[in-house]
Design brief:
The chain is built from 49 helices and 28 strands. It is of the alpha/beta class and 1151 residues long. Among the domains are: 230 residues, Rossmann fold (3-Layer(aba) Sandwich), CATH 3.40.50; 168 residues, 3-Layer(aba) Sandwich (Rossmann fold), CATH 3.40.50; 116 residues, Leucine-rich Repeat Variant; 109 residues, Leucine-rich Repeat Variant (Alpha Horseshoe). Helix 16 links the parallel strand 22 and strand 23.
Length: 1151
């Protein structure tokens, strides 16, 4: 198959060499491999190796060579006008024209089959020889508009002796060029100007190399896989110049040296033991051609094996509780710096307790409170250098990540592997990622213990040549420190028994060596103790829960619009569940059970939510546990329980024994102890098989023998729920609790009455959530049961100081909807007394910070005498949605004679997302308060309101002239949250741009940011602020200008002037501002190009985005964007790209 038209002499022509053009039926799927020759040659000659017996071997076409390695790829050669001596009857082609010809030829390649995808979408791998690599680089950089599909289809490039920094021809150019011109003149021709591109590293060549480098190593994961080769053989340079070889002595050098073959993204080019002319020729076969054999080394086999067997879709899939697969891009991983968390906690301890979230809240207990924004770090930036306490920058190579069960540590590992393979994340740092689930080492039978043995055990057991492959992989890991392997050591807590130096010294020593690898990420649960020889990590992180915006995005992604809206409304009313669903597995569970038929009126408490989740999961699991249950959907809850009674009892006993033993990971020996006690009789499955089919449990030993796997509950709260179920069952049946000490080697069980257990453990921290579930479950058993429970709680022993007891009462009350009025009022009265006592006696107030404090207690405390301000300060941190009654009580405090009370009351209301008209009107009245801090607090309270009435706006405008700068600043911010501003408001804000206080000027500039159309007067005022002495003001002014749909030349010039600002944030704001414009002058774009060299990566990224947003770029500007990818071996890369592209095509077909 060739082009449908006869090519002209100056065209770039593609010819298909595999499969042969005359064969019927072409490869389904796959990629196109396009080979581009170098200077002064053509295909097929440039690719043919001439054997001693006169045969020509074309490695692109020979069925035993490349076609055999990439069976469903089409292979093309591309001829372009590459003559060294050009005719005199036509204008000389520039490199830009040659690049465009090349793009046109590639664009014109034929589609595969009639029912195949368009040729434009078919992935491309380029093989470029010598100067052909330069022409190809220029083409890809210029591939915009109609040629953009070529750039988008490109997956990788193999550069063979491409002179990125010139050739050694530069050394002989003084006498060689006159010789070439003489020879050309004799033949009636001229020397092509292309020769200038291979002499030395010119400015244009340096610029091009920078562009292609950025293009290859695109930080958004859209770059190319790249490798480069250089020759080690020497070329006789005079012999390349006609006539001069007879006049000058031999001068042998490498034509393209290692230093010239380097790209920044591939700093270590690979050598081929041959001269330049043979760099694109291989004789084959693999057994006889050492350089060609490079493509089939054990390293390539190891990579292919690991990728296909261990990093395949099955291993990397994220499975929801429903069994559905969740796309990896919907799996959010949030990481926070532990050092910063500790600093923040330490700082908080020195501050007023009332200004901190409650340490007794559910969010605190399950560790999902979001840390400060400064503590959080993006996954892709883990290995960026970080500033140390002494101010020095340090490279990051060793990372320790802690995280609790269910928060996403395993998902994190899968995402790292996925993004490394699919998005080239960290490819410029590491040649490969080796994910080692440490739990698999428990089945490793040694000694000896070593890296080769571990690689064999984890990855290569099923290969017949495992020993040599593992050895080669180990050697590469150890010999390639700078770009070797990144080890992900997953689940250190799961092998704590292997870290016992006394019982297993050989394994201990090996694990310490493994943990101390140069480049490593280690994941573990928080409680693990690290070996004493463990080297301190460069970075210590903690996985944290979802942010609120991620919770919302996840719900929308997995639910229908109606269900999504209902879940959001439910969460708004339940601060307790808002905390819980920040744990990924909890959020998934809630989304699984919620459908349009769910009776949401039953979901008022945490207990009720868990009951609904558990029931839905049992309906799902029954299908896997029982062979034939055709009427599951019609079964009542009681019928479901009857069908899985033994399984429920098994989970309850496992959960309660685990709680009492402080154990969350259950080994086979623990399971056997429970089973010996329960003795299930109705199940036909082995117990380990039963546990493996339950949605409530997870195993850490997916690859282990099912009979020896360990299990843990989906999340600790599910263990606490089933433990509570067991307690309630024994309580209501008046039977004793029987449980095992799972930490003891003895198999005797413990026995105690529920009442005694309650009295002994009611204040024990690890039972806090279990007691909440107990209260909720008992409330459904009748008033007598729940009354008896509270009576037992209130028996001795008491908490001496009282808060722990009252907090227990408060948590349990929150789970009970139907409690006799007399009982509730009595306990709420006692709780109120403690709330007021704590405030007055200790000078602090913790109870109001808890979202579970009963509303009547809250309102009574607000009306009681005493220090109301301290109480209000604590309440502002509760994150609860206040009722109309409570807000009315707070509004009543606006008349309090204490200004601190008025200030704090306004502050509490400012934390609410919506305010009633009555509340807003009261806040407007407070804007005229005699105290400036009260006026400021009232203005701040109005900041969250997206729509303000004319009356409110007028009152805020009046505050812009307040004598206190903080009041003026707050009023400006409140006005700035409005989507549109009147002329009067805008004029008032313009006046504020000249305020004597820089913070006020900044607030005024920020207030104008949302306005897409500003008057010339406003714009001029903002331009003036670009020279303000405060960098924050300059940055805010640039942001405001950047939101304008069009900018004048004057405004643009002023923003360009900020590119030289000493503050990086100002330079970035200027670049972002200009990036919002679709058409910029060449002068402005040239200035943006200059920012690509900025030392700050965010500025470089903003500049690149700004250039990318331009509708057109001139040729001059086109010479500036690029970067690249990874080091490996020639056909290894071909195979890797081929497999990756095939995988992508398969995925697109399914979708």
């Amino acid at each position: 198959m060739t082009l449908n038209r006869e090519p002209g002499p100056y065209d770039s022509v593609l010819r298909q060499v595999n499969p042969p053009a005359d064969e019927n039926g072409e490869p389904e799927g796959g990629i196109d491999i396009i080979a581009v020759h170098g200077l002064d040659t053509r295909s097929p000659d440039t690719w043919e190796f001439k054997t001693m017996d006169g045969h020509n071997v074309n490695w692109l076409q020979d069925k035993n060579m490349l076609p055999a390695e990439v069976s469903n790829a089409r292979i093309f050669t591309c001829d372009w006008p590459a003559e060294l001596f050009e005719t005199l009857d036509a204008e000389e082609d520039t490199i830009q024209e040659l690049a465009l010809r090349l793009l046109a030829g590639i664009q014109a390649r034929p589609s595969a089959t009639n029912n195949q995808r368009s040729y434009k979408d078919r992935p491309i791998l380029f093989v470029a020889s010598c100067l052909g690599g330069i022409i190809l680089a220029k083409a890809l950089v210029m591939a915009k508009n109609e040629y953009l599909p070529v750039r988008n289809a490109t997956r990788g490039i193999v550069f063979l002796a491409t002179p990125f920094r010139g050739t050694s021809f530069e050394d002989v150019a003084r006498w060689a060029e006159p010789g070439l011109r003489t020879w050309a003149s004799i033949r009636g021709r001229r020397v092509a100007s292309l020769l200038g591109w291979v002499k030395s590293s010119t400015f244009d060549l340096t610029l091009l190399v920078n562009e292609i480098t950025q293009l290859c190593d695109n930080k958004n994961g859209e770059g190319y896989k790249v490798l480069t080769f250089y020759e080690t053989g020497y070329t006789n340079l005079p012999a390349k110049v006609p006539l001069l070889s007879y006049l000058l002595p031999p001068s042998k050098k490498q034509l393209v040296s290692k230093s010239s073959a380097v790209l920044d993204c591939v700093p270590n080019p690979l050598p081929l033991r041959r001269t330049h002319v043979l760099m694109n020729k291989f004789r084959g076969p693999k057994a006889d051609d050492p350089d060609y054999k490079l493509v089939e080394t054990p390293l390539e086999q190891a990579n292919t094996w690991i990728r296909e067997k261990h990093y395949n879709k099955e291993r990397l899939k994220i499975e929801r509780l429903s069994g559905d697969i969740l796309p990896i891009d919907q799996c959010y991983i949030n990481l926070a710096l532990i050092e910063t968390l500790r600093e923040n906690n330490s700082k908080q301890k020195s501050e007023d307790y009332s200004q901190q979230p409650s340490p007794f809240s559910l969010a605190s207990r399950i560790k999902v409170e979001l840390p400060h924004e400064d503590s959080q770090i993006e996954l892709s930036k883990l290995f960026e250098p970080r500033r140390q306490p002494d101010g020095q920058m340090k490279e990051v190579r060793r990372i320790l990540i802690r995280g609790r069960a269910g928060v996403g540590k395993s998902t994190l590992c899968k995402k790292i592997v996925h993004d490394f393979i699919e998005k080239a994340m960290w490819r410029h740092l590491f040649a490969r990622v080796l994910w080692v689930p440490l739990r698999n080492l428990k089945t490793w039978r040694g000694p000896p213990y070593g890296l080769t043995g571990m690689l064999h055990h984890i990855y290569l057991q099923q290969r017949p040549d495992h020993a040599s492959i593992a050895s080669a992989l180990r050697q590469h890991v150890e010999d390639s420190v700078s770009r070797g392997a990144l080890f992900i050591l997953d689940g250190l807590d799961e092998i704590s028994e292997l870290l016992d130096e006394q019982h297993n010294p050989d394994m201990f020593r090996f694990l310490v060596e493994l943990l101390n690898m140069t480049t490593v990420i280690i994941t573990t649960r928080p409680h693990i103790s690290l070996p004493h020889d463990f080297e301190k990590p460069d970075l210590e992180l903690e996985t944290i829960g979802f942010r609120s915006d991620q919770v919302e995005a996840y719900i929308k992604a997995v639910s229908t619009p109606i269900v999504s809206r209902n879940i959001q409304l439910f969460l708004q009313k339940s601060p307790l569940m808002r905390s819980l669903v920040r744990i990924p597995i909890q959020l998934d569970a809630l989304c699984i059970v919620w459908d349009e038929t769910l009776d949401t009126d039953r979901l008022k408490t945490m207990t009720q939510v868990y009951q609904a989740i558990v029931e839905r999961l049992w309906r799902k699991d029954i299908k896997r546990l029982k062979e034939s249950q055709p009427h599951i959907k019609a079964m009542s809850s009681q019928e479901i329980n009857n069908h899985v009674m033994e399984e429920i009892q098994l989970l309850e006993s496992l959960a309660f024994s685990g709680m009492s033993s402080n154990l969350i990971e259950f080994q086979s020996v623990h399971r056997d102890s429970i089973c010996d006690f329960i003795r299930p009789t109705q199940t036909s499955l082995p117990v380990y098989e039963t546990l493996g089919r339950l949605s409530f449990l997870r195993t850490s030993d997916g690859a282990a023998d099912p009979a020896t796997r360990s299990h843990h509950f989906l999340h600790l709260t599910f263990q606490e729920y089933f433990a509570a179920k067991y307690f309630v069952r024994m309580w209501t049946n008046e039977r004793t609790l029987r449980y095992f000490d799972l930490n003891s080697r003895r198999k005797d069980y413990c026995e105690v009455s529920p009442k005694v257990f309650l009295r002994e453990n009611k204040y024990t921290g690890r039972y806090d959530i279990m007691w909440r579930f107990v209260a909720g479950l008992l409330s459904e058993e009748g008033k007598d049961e729940i009354s008896g429970f509270f009576e037992e709680i209130e028996k001795k022993p008491f908490d001496i100081l009282g808060p722990a007891h009252q907090r227990l009462i408060m948590h349990c009350l929150n789970e009970i909807l139907d409690l006799p009025t007399r009982l509730r009022e009595k306990r709420e009265k006692q709780l109120l007394q403690w709330v007021l006592f704590e405030r007055d006696f200790t000078g602090s107030s913790r109870f109001p910070r808890e979202s579970e404090i009963p509303e009547r207690v809250l309102n009574s405390a607000l009306s009681a005498s005493g220090d109301k301000a301290r109480f209000l300060d604590a309440l502002s941190y509760s994150q609860r949605q206040l009722s109309d009654t409570t807000m009315a009580a707070i509004v009543g405090l606006f008349k309090d004679e204490d200004s601190n009370v008025r200030y704090s009351a306004a502050d509490v209301l400012g934390k609410q997302s919506t305010l009633s008209n009555t509340t807003t009107a009261a806040l407007i009245g407070l804007l005229e308060d005699e105290e400036s801090k009260v006026r400021r607090s009232a203005a701040e309270a109005l900041c969250k309101q997206s729509t303000l009435s004319d009356t409110t706006t007028a009152a805020l405008i009046g505050l812009l002239e307040d004598e206190n700068w903080r009041v003026r600043s707050s009023a400006a911010r409140a006005l700035g949250n409005q989507s549109t501003l009147s002329d009067t408001t805008t004029a008032a804000l313009i006046g504020l741009l000249e305020d004597e206080d820089s913070k006020v000027r900044r607030s005024a500039a920020e207030a104008l940011c949302k306005q897409s159309t500003l008057s010339d007067t406003t714009t001029a005022a903002l331009i003036g602020l670009l020279e303000d002495e405060d960098w924050r003001v300059r940055s805010s002014a640039a942001n405001a200008l950047g939101n304008q749909s069009t900018l004048s030349d004057t405004t643009t010039a002023a923003l360009v002037g900020l590119f030289k600002d000493e503050d990086s944030k100002v330079r970035r704001s200027a670049a972002v501002a200009l990036g919002n414009q679709s058409t910029l002058s060449d002068t402005t774009m040239a200035a943006l190009v200059g920012l690509l060299e900025d030392k700050d990566s965010d500025i470089r990224s903003s500049a690149a985005n700004a250039l990318g947003n331009q509708s057109t770029l001139s040729d001059k500007i086109l010479d500036t964007l690029g970067i690249a990818a990874s080091k490996s071996i020639l056909v290894f890369l071909l195979m890797e790209m081929f497999a990756s592209s095939t995988k992508r095509l398969d995925s697109e077909k399914r979708n």
